[in-house]
Amino acid sequence: MIALKWLLVLILMLIILVILAGQLGLFKGVAPNDLGVVGNRLKLPADTPNSVSSQADLYPNHLQHDYAQIAPLPLVGDGKSTLGKIKGIIELMPGAQIITDQENYLYVQFTTRVMKFVDDAEFWFDSQLNIVQVRSASRIGKSDLGVNRQRIEWIRKQLEEIS
Fold it and tell me: What is the CATH number of the domain that holds 47?
């Protein structure tokens, strides 16, 4: 019985230490320095199942091609107004911080509440295809448990409700 009690105390202490490490920012990772639009492309998907990209089909042999595939966001009005609506949706999301806000491009960092994990999301108005290309990826870890996909699909649903 005493061993079980100590085991529970040890587990509780470990949980507290992990949460404290997250609060201190030890799990935020390093911001990528290669984001943005280069040659009409956003950065390719991550090599681990923790990112989504509407341009995954541009990389058919990529390790995470199937996992990363997500539909681009449709326009609601023109490109500029659609990005404005996306920006408005994002500004209401907890943990969201808009880093870059350009006429045809948004770069956003999403930080989780407890562990302070950071995901990087990009939204680019692709004027050739008349859609908003999207990429969202976790900075660290091998899996995001589907969080990036859920976030982009939630934004898509909010856009649909606006239109």
Answer: 3.30.310
Q: What is the mean pLDDT of residues 79-90?
A: 97
Rounded to the nearest 5 percent, the helix, strand and coil shares of the chain are 35, 20, 40
Strand pairing partners for 16? none
Inter-CA distances, 129 with 83, 152, 161, Å: 15, 19, 22
Domains in the chain, number: 1
Distance CA 129, CA 37 (A): 15
Looking at the predicted structure, is the pLDDT value of residue 161 above 70?
yes
Distances in whole angstroms, Cα of residue 32 to Cα of each of 11, 18, 39, 141? 34, 24, 18, 15
Whether 123 contacts 16, CB under 8 Å? no
Residue 116's pLDDT is: 87
For residue 104, the enclosing domain spans 2-162
- Give the C-alpha separation, 160 to 17, whole Å: 42
